[in-house]
């Protein structure tokens, strides 16, 4: 018996082009969706991927692109190797200013074996709610980490904490034990964060070195393509003097929300250590 298709809609705080790339770029799909064998938003393109069922069993998904209108609509067939049934998955994107309303429709679920709990409508609903309601927003939406501390030290002492290799190494432990920075601390120079074993954790360039009030460093994220606006992010350290004392404010972004979730606790620890180092503890 034909059933109504499963539909989920979400408004994402991200431009249409970014959302489109997230659902059509193989590398980006792996970050929030599935590790597909390959992908091109072209009619007739065939691909496959594996997924885990209710009991931990593996299912091979077989798909073929049926419709692709850049930044507007993507449809592909969805079936399973070794099981009867045929469904169609459709993504529709609607531009709403700088946001995107995404409508996902999965039609034909009733064609799969209904005596298998992995093919139950509720199983699909749970999966799509997690993917579209949680994982995709965390991947395409961005934010900025902001941390502030009042420091019982002079602006010059705070600046020294930010640019003295030995002192930087003390607070960089908040990220990973033994992390250290390499730079000559001059405007226009490179800057590299290295792990304890010498591997590069992040690399960038000092954009602004206005002693002792502003340090700006641009970093490149090698994990995304250079055509992605989120390929670059800025760390900004501001040192100001207020009635309450010297204030250190750190801004890092824009970053994907999924990265903020992992990095924010580290920055919470880092600013505590920065305050301690600047105050001579």
Outline the structure in words.
The chain is α+β, with helices and mostly antiparallel strands and about 280 residues long. It folds into 2 domains: about 5-140, 2-Layer Sandwich (Alpha-D-Glucose-1,6-Bisphosphate, Chain A, domain 4), CATH 3.30.530.20; about 140-280, Alpha-D-Glucose-1,6-Bisphosphate, Chain A, domain 4 (2-Layer Sandwich), CATH 3.30.530.20. The chain is about 25% helix and about 40% strand. The chain has 6 helices and 13 strands. It has helices spanning about 15-25, 25-30, 120-140, 155-165, 165-170, 255-280; strands at about 5-10, 45-50, 60-70, 75-80, 85-95, 100-105, 140-150, 180, 190-195, 200-210, 215-220, 230-240, 245-255. The strands form 2 sheets. The chain has a 7-stranded antiparallel sheet with strand order 7-13-12-11-10-9-8. Strands 1-6-5-4-3-2 form a 6-stranded antiparallel sheet, covered by helices on one side. Helix 1 crosses helix 2, helix 4 crosses helix 6 and helix 5 (about 165-170) packs across helix 6 (about 255-280). The model has no long low-confidence stretch (mean pLDDT about 95).
């Amino acid at each position: 018996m034909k059933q109504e298709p499963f539909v989920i809609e979400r408004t994402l705080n991200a431009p249409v082009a970014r959302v489109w790339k997230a659902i059509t770029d193989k590398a980006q799909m792996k970050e929030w969706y599935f590790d597909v064998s390959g992908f091109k938003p072209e009619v007739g393109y065939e691909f496959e991927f594996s997924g885990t069922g209710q009991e931990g069993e593996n299912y091979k998904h077989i798909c073929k692109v049926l419709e692709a209108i850049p930044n507007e609509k993507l449809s592909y067939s969805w079936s399973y190797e070794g099981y009867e049934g045929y469904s169609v998955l459709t993504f529709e994107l609607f531009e709403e200013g700088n946001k995107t309303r995404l409508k996902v429709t999965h039609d034909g679920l009733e064609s799969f074996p209904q005596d298998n709990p992995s093919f139950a409508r509720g199983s699909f609903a749970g999966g799509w709610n997690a993917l579209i309601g949680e994982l995709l927003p965390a991947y395409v939406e961005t934010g900025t980490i902001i941390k502030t501390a009042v420091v019982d030290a002079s602006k010059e002492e705070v600046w020294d904490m930010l640019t003295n290799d030995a002192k930087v190494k003390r607070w960089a432990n908040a990220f990973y034990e033994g992390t250290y920075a390499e730079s000559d601390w001059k405007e226009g120079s490179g800057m590299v964060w290295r792990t304890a074993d010498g591997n590069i954790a992040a690399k960038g360039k000092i954009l602004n070195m206005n002693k002792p009030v502003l340090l700006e460093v641009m970093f490149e994220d090698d994990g995304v393509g250079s055509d992605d606006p989120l390929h670059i992010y800025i760390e900004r350290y501001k040192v100001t003097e207020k009635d309450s004392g010297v204030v250190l404010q750190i801004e890092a972004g824009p970053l994907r929300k999924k990265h903020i979730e992992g990095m924010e606790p580290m920055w919470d620890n880092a600013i505590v250590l920065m305050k301690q180092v600047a105050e001579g503890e």
